[in-house]
Amino acid sequence: MGRVQRGGSECAMLAASEQCTHLCTAVILEGGSLALIWGSHPCRLLVGAPQAPALPSQAANRTGGLFACPLTPEPSDCWRVPIDEGVDLQRESKENQWLGVSVKSQGAGGKIVTCAHRYEARNRVRQPLETRDVIGRCFVLSQDLQVHDELDGGEWKFCEGRPQGHDRFGFCQQGLAAAFSPDQHYVLFGAPGTYNWKGNMRVELLNQSSLDLLRYDDGPYEAGGEKDQDPSLIPVPANSYFGLLFVTNIDSSDPDQLVYKSPDPNEKVPGAAGDVPQNSYLGFSVDSGAGLTRRRELSFVSGAPRANHTGAVVILRRDSAQRLVPEAVLPGEQLTSAFGYALAVLDLNSDGWMDLVVGAPHFFERQAEIGGAAYVYINPAGHWDAATPLRLTGTHGSMFGIALGSAGDLNLDGFEDLAVGAPFDGAGKVYIYHGSKLGIVVKPAQVLDGEGVGVTTFGYALSGGVDVDGNLYPDLLVGSLSDAVVLYRACPVVYISRNVSLIPANIDLEQNNCQHHEGICVDVQACFSYTATPASYSPPLVLEYVFDADTERRRLGHPPRVTFLGRRPSDPEHQFSNTVELPRQHTRTCTAATFQLQDSIRDKLRPIAVTLAYGIQGAGTPRHSRSATLPPLPPVLSPQQPSSHRAEVHFLKQGCGDDKICQSNLQLRFQFCTRLGDSDFLPLPKGADGTAIFAMSDQKDVALEIHVTNEPSDPTEPQRDGDDAHEAALTARFPQELPYSAVRPYDGRTATDKPVVCLANQNGSQVECELGNPMKRGAQVRFYLILSTLGITLQTTDLAVELALSTISEQPDLEPVVARARVVIELPLSVTGVAVPPRLFFGGTVRGESAVRRESQVGSAVIFEVTVSNRGPSLKTLGSAFLTLLWPHELSNGKWLLYPLQLELVAAPGLRTMCSPAANPLRLALEPPGEAEVSEEPPMASWWVPAPAERRKNVTLDCAQGTARCVAFRCPLYSFERSAVLTARGRLWNSTFLEEYLDVTSVELIVRASVSVTSSIKNLVLKDASTQIPVTIYLDPGVAVAGGVPWWVILLAVLAGILVLALLIFILWKLGFFRRARYVPPAVPQYHAVKIPREERQQYREEKMGTIQRKEWAVNWSEPSDGHVTPSSA
User: 3-class DSSP state for residue 208?
Assistant: First the structure.
């Protein structure tokens, strides 16, 4: 049997009884069942113990038994019911018969049935053809647990005497499930082992009821027909996997002689169906009810948990041929879920139609961690094909739904309640679900936990719906596999009527109304009364109540705005607690308290909420008593009624519209700014998408400019919005890289009367700035949030600051916005270049590539010097830098253009780096740098004859324009501090220019240089990282004359010029231009020069320049008296 344990939890609707603690020697194992019986005798608990030791007269070790316990606390008060004593070993065996596997009671004054489904009938004991058939049997007892009438009581074993073998009735296992019909006329037996474990259900009439009704032909009924005994009549799906069974006798002279063979599933044999639906276990659970398919008509229900490998439930009715005919079959949902393992028939919504609950304890969902299910079918007026079940589920591995039972109407609300066992949910749990007008309430009204009463596998068996303590509320008995049962008694349920009023209803902040001191006070009054069922239950109740103000505000971390006067010393300032006594039902009792507003409250808009919470004093642990009677239980509040009430007192609102609703219109504008030193803040530059760009190289101070306004959205309708914004605030959340540092006013002051106050958290990740309380209509606030850039690293790519305006005024569109800035790392690198000389010339003769052997045979020499300057730190922390030189080495036709001879990069003294690919691809002989230099100017000719105007043009050769082909020389810039210089030496390919550009005025050749950085940092930006170096190329003047105008053109031009000159002289002579008038010449100084002979000249030569200096002429001047000067030699 077991023990009924007392729980220490509070008395809810069901409470573990102090008086019901029993401990016996038997152990409840699988199949243990429970029943509560009551009537003229004291109430008793009946507990089946299928593994109880055998009685001495039973000649077995374990047979099981039935135990009865009165509702007393002593374990020794339990006794074993004296049934099934003695044994006839020639006819039967009671070893492991599992007596007590099912126990059911009819109710007050009714009978009890208990079964042993593994009872074994024997024939030809100790003979070669001995048979042992596990037919099972049941016992029906009277209310006093005695057999008074042989017609009603005694053994019930309908499988005895029928054809044996597992394909017929040899493994009948009658009594694995048993029950009484609700009209008390029938007893139901499940026999899941009949017909190859297809199963069967038998309904048998109790003779006493038959005599009362004068009906003598009522039953018995079977699903396969009591007379037909045809398994094809059993309406369960086919899922045979048993195969064929051959039985031989190894002790006979012919061991191969066939003794028994099971029928072939494909064989049409008498009494068998073609599909042979074996192993369905019909009869594993049984129940019945009036109003399942027709109102006031009795129907029977049986579970087949292995039907079609998912399980099924069959609803049957009686017919005139003593058969149970199927009316509906409810299939299972999931494979191996054991749908139909347990059944409960009850009216959850009190509509007169019986509803059905089906247990599937092996249902599971791995991801949802579900283990076990109970399917609730609300009866659709008998049309079960339209029924859609509601699935209740338990936790993983809990076996939720292994036990089901009607708990009766626990709260007397007119709807039956459901109890569901989950014995492996922790220590085991029982879930109580309330019925309602809409069906079942899916949230459990109460969860009974075995851990609270020290019992494991709690909830393996259930028996309820019986009032054992006489308080008109049904009680519940819970069994387990751990040698214990627990009786839960239902507490009386009371309904509290309460009302809270606040005086005055509105608070005027300009009027003090406290009676004995200055301040603003509000009176709180609460009135209570209660009702209960039954009406005769009317004890005095003491309620404990608590007034709690500003609950929601304090939940948000804000201080309360009120202080209760006259409170208990243990109560906080925002609470007031006391008790009030309700003398009887329907009697109204009131109580009151007063609170005062605190000084300088900020929230003057939202109402002050006062919450009233209450409970019954002394409704905790049931009182302890050692008397023989059960002590009364304290009442509990109805779980369907909230145990709290809320009331509000409002402020008289100022600065709002005529409707007394403050509808503000806060608008926010922002931008990132920066400044150097003490200068004014300037906006950060923005990219193409409008995002601010924060460069790490030059920004010093960074700020976020905030501009908030509260103005009407439509000036033509100012009454629509723009009212005072109470408790206007700005909350900013900063990233870890850009924490808050300080707040600064805009232009040295704010637009409000006092400066903005901002409060930041400890790490500067969030700040809240007060904008005004209230922020008046038409007001605006402008200030700077100073941000710290110390947390920005090379890996930071963007910055996001979340800004949220808030106010307790009405403005539903206040959504947070994000201020974003993109972070870039500007490398302070610059690239410059120069060509020496900047002008080159080509001329001479065309020479093929194969004829060129030395550098000097190529053409004019040029040197490009590219300087990379680094104004910041070394590049080694950022990545790998390279200098790329785009060298125009050939034309599109493949002819050489600018031949590369040598490239060398000097990053530091003594550190020289070569570029790739290698220069001088033709491996020409290089000349020493001094000899390879050429003059910047071409050799001067005595005169210049330009080409015709129509043939002169300028050409630009640039790889970027596609007019030349370039080779990219890549030069690594290893760590360098300040600068690196690339020297690139090359020569014009003279022959190409003679062939392609003889008729041009000039050719501009572009060499490009750029710096690139390869780094894991994605936001690197290079400024001034590229340059272009132009070189202008001209044709040698000598080549231009020789190859210019033809000789006959020149000759004609000379002759024409001479002719024009002669004509001009002739005309002037005719006009007398050459005729002179005589005049007396004036006296002018004269000189006389003397030429120095050649041999007397001295020659001077400068050693380095190679120039010759000549001596100047020697002249003597004289002035005679006649006015003439007489020169003389020095």
Answer: helix
If phi > 0 it is left, if psi is from -120 to 50 it is alpha, else beta; for residue 888 that is: beta
The continuous run of DSSP H or E covering 648 comes out as strand 644-651
Q: Are strands 1002-1014 and 954-957 parallel, antiparallel or unpaired?
A: parallel
CA distance 1097 to 1109: 10
DSSP state of 469: S
905 neighbors 980 (Cβ within 8 angstroms): yes
pLDDT digits (tens, 9 = 90+) for 11-39: 455 665 543 333 222 333 333 566 765 54
The vertex-580 CA angle with 578 and 582, nearest 5°, equals: 165
For 387, the token pair is 């029924």
Whether 670 shows a pLDDT value over 70: the answer reads yes
What structural domains and CATH numbers belong to the chain?
93-460 (2.130.10.130), 493-651 (2.60.40.1460), 666-825 (2.60.40.1510), 829-922+950-1042 (2.60.40.1530), 1082-1130 (no CATH)
Q: What angle do CA 860, 862, 865 make, to 5 degrees?
A: 180
Q: Are 842 and 993 in contact (CB under 8 A)?
A: yes
Q: Tell which wins on pLDDT, 963 or 151.
A: 963
Buried b (16+ CB within 10 A) or exposed e, 181-193: bbeebbbbbbbbb
Whole-number pLDDT of residue 819: 94
pLDDT of 262 > 70? The answer is no
792 contacts: CB under 8 Å, gap ≥ 6? 694, 696, 737, 738, 799, 823
**Range with lowest mean pLDDT among 8-17, 673-682, 797-806, 1018-1027:** 8-17
Quote the longest CA-to-CA distance of the chain. Answer: 195
CA distances from 156 to 79, 170, 174, 204, 763 (A): 24, 16, 9, 10, 81
The CA distance from 278 to 276, in Å, is 6
Closest CA to 549 of 537, 536, 567: 567
**pLDDT tens column, 965-1015:** 999 999 988 766 678 899 999 999 999 888 888 888 899 999 999 988 877
Four-residue CA torsion sign, 262, 267, 271, 275 = positive
Instruction: DSSP for 522-582, please give it.
Output: EEEEEEEEEEESSTT----EEEEEEEEESHHHHHTTPPPSEEEET--TTS-TTEEEEEEEE
Provide the pLDDT confidence category of residue 1037 given band limits of 50, 70 and 90.
confident
| pTM over 0.90, yes/no | no
Rounded CA-CA distance 861/902 in Å is: 12
How far is it, in rounded angstroms, from Cα 999 to Cα 693?
52
Q: Which residue bears the tokens 């929230």?
A: 603
Token duo for residue 1105: 């320049």
Q: Tokens 């603690």 label which residue?
A: 21
Which one has a higher pLDDT value, 248 or 648?
A: 648
> Collapsing DSSP states into helix, strand and coil, what is residue 556?
coil
Q: Any alpha helices (H) in 821-946, and if so which ranges?
A: 929-932
Residue 359 CA to residue 404 CA, distance in Å, equals: 7
Cβ-contact 606, 638 below 8 angstroms: no
Q: Please, what is the end-to-end C-alpha distance for the chain in angstroms?
A: 161
pLDDT in tens, 76-88: 778 898 888 888 8
Within a 10 A sphere around the Cβ of 862, how many other Cβ atoms? 24
- pLDDT of 223 higher than 90: no
Q: Rounded distance, CA 707 to CA 723, Å?
A: 18
Q: Which two tokens stand for residue 686?
A: 């923005």
The upper half-sphere exposure of residue 2, i.e. CA atoms within 13 Å in the direction of its Cβ, equals 34
Q: What is the pLDDT of residue 1103?
A: 44
Round to whole Å and give the CA distance between 571 and 575: 6
Residue with tokens 């209230």: 774
Which pairing describes strands 44-49 and 65-70: parallel, antiparallel, or unpaired? antiparallel
